[in-house]
Design a protein that fits this description.
This protein has helices at 2-18, 76-91, 101-106; strands at residues 35-41, 47-53, 56-61. It is of the alpha+beta class. The protein has a three-stranded antiparallel beta sheet with strand order 1-2-3, covered by helices on one side. A hairpin with a 5-residue loop joins strand 1 and strand 2 (47-53). The longest helix has 17 residues, at 2-18.
C-alpha cells in the first residue's frame, strides 16, 4: 500500500511539473514562423492591413477591428500600430489574435 501511495504522489507531482509546458504544444503559429504585415489602401481613402505568417496571408483586415461597420483606419500610422499589435499576439501564440477597444485606445489609436 505504501508503494502505491508513493507512486501516486510521485505521479501527481510529475504531472503538476509538466502540465504548464503542455499548452505550448497547442500553438497555431510555430515559434520559428516569420510574422509580418503590410498596409492596405482602401478605395474610400482609409487603411487596413494584412498579417502574413511565412509569407501567407493569415489575417485580412481592411476595417477597424472590434468596431461596428466597415470603416477603415483614417491614417496609415493607426493601421500600422494595430498591425504591429496583432503581429505581437501571433508571435506569442495567441490564435486567433483579437484586440479590445481598450487595447487599441491604450496604443493611441483614434477610434
Amino acid at each position: 500500500m505504501k508503494t502505491f501511495l508513493s507512486s501516486l504522489i510521485a505521479f501527481v507531482v510529475l504531472l503538476f511539473l509538466l502540465l504548464p509546458a503542455y499548452p505550448h504544444t497547442w500553438r497555431s503559429t510555430p515559434p520559428a514562423s516569420v510574422v509580418s504585415w503590410k498596409l492596405l489602401h482602401n478605395t474610400d481613402h482609409t487603411y487596413g492591413y494584412d498579417i502574413l505568417v511565412n509569407d501567407r496571408i493569415t489575417v485580412h483586415q481592411p476595417f477597424i477591428p472590434c468596431l461596428r461597420g466597415n470603416n477603415g483606419f483614417s491614417s496609415q500610422k493607426d493601421a500600422a500600430r494595430v498591425a504591429r499589435l496583432m503581429c505581437g499576439k501571433i508571435k506569442k501564440g495567441i490564435m486567433p489574435p483579437t484586440l479590445t477597444i481598450e487595447e487599441m485606445q491604450a496604443a493611441g489609436i483614434r477610434l
